[in-house]
Design a protein that fits this description.
heterotrimer, A mainly alpha (213), B mainly alpha (220), C alpha/beta (310), B: mainly alpha, C: 310 residues, alpha/beta, D-Maltodextrin-Binding Protein, domain 2, 2 domains, three-stranded antiparallel beta sheet, 13 helices, globular
Chain lengths: 213, 220, 310
């Protein structure tokens, strides 16, 4: 299995646009996942009876094969980017919900009671006390969801999208390893870079952690 | 939507759907075989690795990063790559599934090992236990709950991902998903997806039940 | 049904090479009449979709090249999936134009359709298509499904024609893309027309590495391939004859949404259809599959070489 370097040189434009399209799908899914999971996590954290249901339901979603989700969305959103993004959002949502609930749970009761005693309203407590303190655990979830989404985008190649995943089906059909190798390497690079950037972001977002260290 | 679920009911209970080489019974057996074998191989690789790192405390940084690297590996790409390198067999599928399962097993085993109280280890050494005895008789039993959690997580992911076997002509429940996609037969796709989810949930419940039974005397 | 049979008969005589004239004549018989000529506009650009096999990508990029040369803005979405997936996408508006095959398309739209001759099929297609879609004049190039066995299997089981399969009922394994299991030119028709029943249907791919690999290895006895595949000759495989005409002749035909079908598009695709021969297409497929050239580059080079694009 040899790498055809000239193919790579000839396709830098295509590879760039596939990489960007890949990244766009993954990041949109994580952002949407965050948007949906935050309120759900707050509900799960505060309304005990709903907690089991929400976490259980999201865990079941996680067991459905991603390709099936994409196909089942076809009658709704067709062969579009929307299908890819909705499918990926489902998975990132599961990871984010789990971690955000865990993060909120990890905030010491004493801290919340102190805030209450000082007359802080619940919403304000949530935004200024609980979420910042839960941030490290939430960010751990964001990192996992991002890496997972980047790796999952390629499955959407079966519905004609999939960013770098298109290199896999193409290489497969033509018995041509070069695009496949390039696709795998670029996916890994994307994941590593995105993860490193998230670590940096977390460093910026949690200055109190730095002072302690 | 209602129509789809009504047809799913018919699909799932029709007896012809259950028999023969493309029947649910056979596909289910294939799917279980792929998933369990892949998880076993992954455990054979991941467990010793996690135990070693946890016991010696060496290479932890590398292992954790390799694990997140492994999580980023695109399964489709890996399957195609191994297929192109080695031809058509189940090998590409197993390589991809094992690569998926190993990180969860290593990280959880390592986490379980680091969670063991250092005082307990010291006490064991103070009683004259050697490194290997400490590992097998003290650390391993204490780390077991987290290790099992890792195996559970790995198995669930593998069950969901084993659908990929159908992409390279093999069986399992993924057959319904890929055939249903090609034929635009959404009932078949949904049937396959539901069966995969049921298998995953049942295995998860069984394993967590086992965990609870094994560690019923311990306080969490 | 009567009307179709009548029209089929009428056009059976009027088929063959005067393609653009003949075929546009057929299209104008379309129930939607002249709407086919006006109404649509390619001004906003045309999105070409292609199915999940090499030749369809080549055709998609050939369409793209001639449309670009005619000043139309085009986007190609390669490798979208099977006909069962791409046609609903065309109806839904995700794509506007597809390279199609007369016989297979007709079977998809109307599994009971009887015409097998290209003029009659073109006509039947026009009648069978859902509102909003139309076929443009068909091209010279043809590509049909073929059921293929290795020389050794042919000898061992005495297979020369699809009619011979029946003698081996329950013994042979057939390999094809998953959708072929439910298609008339596939497991369904082989049983209905030839009484052939297989030990197993193996879901593989559309004339791709899986089905050809399985045939070579002996994992399947009968494989569904395309007649434009040079491997059939290279590997000395035997194409089973089709005395009952289960497999229709298949000229390549553009399937387009009415909303995009204007004269610019028609003219450009008709010119390509007249120039591109079966041999040309076979050679282009080969360049992509064997020489690992991009379908886009291959298509651009071809259209330039034949004066279809600058």
């Amino acid at each position: 299995m040899t790498i055809d370097w000239s193919w790579i040189a000839d396709h830098t434009d295509d590879l760039t646009s596939l990489t960007l399209s890949h990244l766009e799908a993954a990041l949109t899914a994580v952002l949407l996942g965050l948007l949906v999971s935050l309120p759900l996590a707050v509900i799960a954290h505060r309304v005990r009876p709903l907690r089991g249901f929400l976490l259980g339901a999201s865990n079941v979603l996680f067991t459905i094969p991603s390709i099936a989700i994409f196909v089942l969305l076809l009658p709704v959103s067709g062969l579009t980017r929307t299908t890819t993004v909705i499918g990926l959002t489902v998975y990132s949502l599961v990871v984010l919900l789990r971690n955000t609930v865990e993060g909120l749970d990890s905030v010491p009761v004493r801290v919340k009671e102190a805030a209450k005693a000082m007359g802080t309203r619940p919403l304000r407590t949530l935004l200024t006390v609980e979420l910042p303190l839960a941030l490290p655990v939430i960010m751990a979830g964001v990192r996992i969801a991002t890496v997972m989404s980047i790796s999952l985008v390629s499955v959407a190649t079966y519905i004609g999208d999939g960013g770098l995943g298109q290199l896999f089906t193409d290489g497969f059909q033509r018995n041509f390893p070069t695009p496949v190798i390039v696709g795998v390497v670029l996916t890994l690079l994307l994941a590593v870079v995105a993860d490193a950037l998230l670590v940096a972001l977390q460093y910026v977002l949690t200055p109190w952690k730095r002072r302690r260290a | 939507m209602y129509e789809l679920f009504k047809n799913l009911g018919t699909w799932l209970v029709s007896s012809s759907q259950w028999s023969g080489p493309d029947g649910i019974a056979h596909r289910l057996a294939e799917h279980l075989q792929y998933s369990l074998l892949a998880t076993l191989i992954a455990a054979a690789i991941g467990l010793p690795l996690g135990l070693l790192i946890g016991h010696t405390g060496k290479g932890a940084f590398l292992a954790i990063n390799l694990a997140s690297f492994g999580r980023a590996l695109p399964t489709v790409g890996l399957v195609v790559l191994v297929f192109l390198a080695g031809g058509l067999s189940m090998l590409p599928v197993y390589v991809a599934l094992v690569a998926l399962a190993v990180p969860a097993i290593v990280t959880n085993t390592y986490a379980g090992m680091t969670a063991v109280d250092p005082d307990v280890k010291d006490a064991a050494r103070g009683q004259g236990m050697r490194g290997r005895q400490v590992l097998l008789q003290v650390e391993l039993p204490l780390a077991l709950p987290l290790i099992l959690t890792g195996l559970r997580l790995a198995l669930i992911q593998v069950v969901a991902t084993a659908t990929i076997a159908a992409y390279v002509s093999f069986g399992g429940l993924g057959r319904y998903v890929f055939d249903g996609l090609a034929q635009r037969d959404l009932v078949q796709v949904l049937g396959g997806a539901v069966l995969v989810a049921v298998v995953a949930v049942v295995l998860d419940l069984a394993l967590s039940g086992l965990q609870r039974f094994l560690f019923r005397h311990r306080t969490a | 049904m009567n009307r179709r049979a009548l029209l089929g008969g009428l056009f059976a005589a009027a088929s063959v090479p005067a393609l653009s004239a003949c075929a546009s004549g057929i299209t104008s018989l379309d129930g939607r009449g002249d709407a086919a000529g006006g109404g649509g506009s390619s001004k906003g650009g045309v999105t070409i979709g292609t199915a999940n096999f090499t030749e369809n990508q080549v055709l998609g990029y050939l369409y793209a090249a001639v449309l670009k040369a005619a000043g139309v803005k085009v986007t190609v979405r390669p490798n979208l999936g099977t006909r069962e997936i791409v046609i609903p996408a065309l109806e839904g508006g995700d794509i506007d134009l597809l390279p199609e095959y007369q016989g297979a398309l007709l079977n998809y739209l109307d599994p009971k359709a009887t015409p097998t001759e290209e003029g009659a099929m073109q006509n039947a297609l026009t009648l069978a298509l859902p509102a909003g879609l139309q076929v443009l004049p068909y091209g010279t190039a043809e590509d049909s499904d073929a059921f293929v066995v290795t020389r050794e299997t042919a000898r061992k089981y005495g297979l020369a024609s699809l009619a011979d399969l029946k003698k081996q009922n329950g013994r042979l394994v057939i390999g094809a893309a998953p959708e072929v299991k439910k298609r008339r030119v596939g497991a369904v028709g082989l049983k209905d027309v030839y009484g052939a029943e297989f030990k197993e249907f193996k879901s593989l791919d559309s004339d791709g590495p899986l089905v050809k690999g399985a045939l070579k290895k002996g994992d399947v006895d009968v494989a569904n391939l395309f007649t434009t595949d040079t491997d059939i000759e290279a590997e000395d495989w035997v194409v089973l004859a089709d005395p009952e005409h289960l497999i229709p002749s298949q000229h390549i035909v553009p399937l387009i949404a009415d909303r995009k079908a204007d004269d610019t598009v028609r003219k450009a695709l008709a010119r390509l259809g007249n120039v591109l021969t079966t041999a040309d297409l076979t050679a282009l497929n080969r360049q992509v599959d064997k020489d690992k050239k991009d379908p886009e580059d291959v298509a651009d080079a071809y259209t330039k070489q034949h004066g279809l694009a600058k």
